[in-house]
Write a structure and sequence with these properties.
By secondary structure, the protein is α/β, with parallel strands linked by helices. The protein is built from 17 helices and 8 strands. The chain binds flavin-adenine dinucleotide.
Amino acid sequence: MDINEHSLYSRYTLPMLLVKYIVTLFLTRSFTKRSAIWLMKAAIKNNINNITRILNGIYFGGETLADVKKSIEFLAHSNISSVLDYAVEDEQCEISFDHAVTSILRAIDLASQDINIPYVVIKPSALGSVDLYQARLTSQPSFEFYLPLWERLLGRYETIFSYAQEKSIPVMIDAEQSWIQPPVNEIAIENMIKYNNKQTIVTLTLQCYRRDSYSLISLLNNIAMKHGIVIGIKLVRGAYLEEEMKFNAHPEKLFFTTQLETDRNYNTIVDFIFDNISNFAPFFATHNQVSISKVLNHPLSSSKKIWLAQLYGVGDYISIDAVKRGAQVCKYLPYGPFKKSFPYLVRRIEENAISQDTFCNDNLFLKKEIKSRLIRSSK
Ligand SMILES: Cc1cc2nc3c(=O)[nH]c(=O)nc-3n(C[C@H](O)[C@H](O)[C@H](O)COP(=O)(O)OP(=O)(O)OC[C@H]3O[C@@H](n4cnc5c(N)ncnc54)[C@H](O)[C@@H]3O)c2cc1C
């Protein structure tokens, strides 16, 4: 693939490219990756803001919506849309949950004025406490104590979805750990039935490393037919495997234990969605070459109903290639207060959520870009 100054890499200055090159190089091997994580944590602890700010600029859209606008415009030059992701999670107090709602409503406003923002994202743990979702999941006798908080949480989702419907902006609910996911699915399904009748407003995320993901997609297909709605579905492999392995008594019962099984399941569900495409508005979120080829080789791949997505700053070569092949592509664009977003980034890297292959390929293309810049500047 031809990487030149018009490509996505042109948003980086040479020093930024070098930092990104070194970071991806560190992330291609387990030992160096551990060292990189250690360094990043030390940088956070010691407030070494210069390095962390450069990294933030590479993997984050900015601290505020105003910053993010520049990143959106830049991606749009390469025909790539942006999905805004307010990167704050695991909050604990009602004030910050209400604040997250305000940020999401602002993001919906921004999306309604900018065709380059096809979706807005909700992170369930930014809207309510993990304890609350867990209490709902286990239906503890003491759940009555949580009821007022639960009602407030449902109210937050309601506020977001009704505003999104008013503005015609689809909202995507991220998937998180297994101990909160079932109540999130429950909320998503109830709201899909309510809001997805004219346009697909609510989009649920399906994690294919979960053994029950195939039965969930079949259930969603039945719900679509029964209620005459189109189900918004973001398909991912799943980002919390390490944590799940650590904190579940029998993780093998809930999750696949090899990448091969997760890969097979992802690709089987891609087929299922295409076979039932009238019931789904799919958003395939992946950097995996086999899954991407599977989507791109499908005759419907360039339909306006289908999206392919990668993370901002990750797999840029994939996004460019998919655009060239006629797909609708977007980048997940995290933003938020610097002090909260950088630890979020480090945690994502630590969880091994992105495969070393993706970082190896990123590193290869970065090397090419750096070389060609140096050659150009020496002429
Ligand atoms: C736009 C976008 C949005 C995302 N949103 C979410 C979200 O809401 N929730 C979420 O959980 N994740 C989300 N992710 C992350 C996603 O789940 C993956 O962790 C990440 O994309 C890497 O998977 P991949 O499909 O790109 O392919 P690869 O990098 O090829 O696959 C790596 C993935 O394979 C799986 N895997 C690896 N080893 C094993 C093993 N031993 N056993 C079983 N499975 C294994 C894991 O899921 C791992 O993340 C998102 C990713 C993108 C691109």
